[in-house]
Structure formats: structure tokens, C-alpha cells
Amino acid sequence: MSLRPLGKSTPQMSLSARNKLVADLRKQGIVDQRVLEILQKLPRHEFVDESWRAEAYKNKPLPIGQSQTISQPYIVALMTQALLEGATPRKRVLEIGTGSGYQTAVLAELGISVFSVERLKALSEAARERLRDLGYRNIHFGYNDGNAGWASHAPYDGIIVTAAAIDVPQALLDQLDQHGRLVIPAGPPQNQVLRVIDRNASGFEVRELAKVNFVPMLEGRA
Known about the structure:
By secondary structure, this protein is α/β, with parallel strands linked by helices.
């Protein structure tokens, strides 16, 4: 999947800022070359409001409206790397929380068929338009409560969640294929942990990856 030409160079789009970001990610333990290459070329400035574009290639979260944020590049890289690790190909991935569409684009760049669900209609519509303008055709968009997943397209090789659940929704576990993997931040505010949950023949295996700080995973649509 190739992105559209980025046009004239501007400070927020500069190659040096992108290279610095990738260097920072390497120092923080991101080793998957596919992920690093995607984050180096992906135009993060396209996913934030114009007033925040000068900050787009700094390794920090940024507001995107609706009390939501675009995740810190390190967290996007960490979650994507965790999803990809191992021998099982991730060909069909459910994303809970489309948000700006940045994590969605990272998955799509890997050639994955992405099924992305967002509960906030304004964000869902904006991300759909943005990602189609960028040329992606391997993304399916849903406007719904992410706690329910997207059962009509299940099972999935992988599920990635970009908001923190107090408890892991059973529906997401049910929609994992055999040898599928769920990457999800979970726990109460101020005590969230990024969990990697693998489904195998005997059930589910859980490991904790890092302490994190995500917006809460809410019910319903808005």
C-alpha cells in the first residue's frame, strides 16, 4: 500500500523530524523493522488538526477532539509490534477505536485487512474520509460500541484496542480465532496495563507488556 505524494516539504513534515522519531523508538525497544519503516514514512501530520501539526513528529500523544487523542508513536509501535510477534500471520485484524485513523493506517500499511470500529460518529466519519483520501482500500469501517466487537466479520487473527477497558470484554475474546492475539490496555485509571492475550487450544494465555495511560473504553454510541 503506497501513500499519496506529500507535496512540498514543511517543518512538520521534515525528514529529520521523522528520522529522529524512529531513532527514539529504537532506543525505547522497538525492533520490528516493518513497524519502524511505516512510522518513518506515515504522514502523522495528516491525522491531527492543523494547529498541532508542528508537534506531529514528536513522540507524544496529541488531542484530536471529542476528548480523544492520537496515541504516542511509541505506544502505536509497541502495540503493533506485540500484535505481529510470533509465527502466526495477522491477516484479518479488528481495531477497536478508530480515532484519528493513525493506528488503522499502520495496520493497513502491513497489508492487513482491517476492520475498525469507532463509537464516536464524528471521528468515524472523519477517519474514513482521511484514510480513503490517503489511498487505503483494505479498511472496513464500523460505527458501533467497541465492547461488542464486530461479530459479523469474526473470527480475527488479531484484535487491537486503543482505549482502556476495566475488564477485557468477553465478546472480543470470543471473536479471536485459534492462535489469535488480543492487544488491549486494561485496568482502572492510573493503573492500566497493556495486556497481550493469546488464544490457544487450552484457552487464553495472558502476559503484561507495560504500564500505559489510555482514554477509557466507553459503552454505547455518540
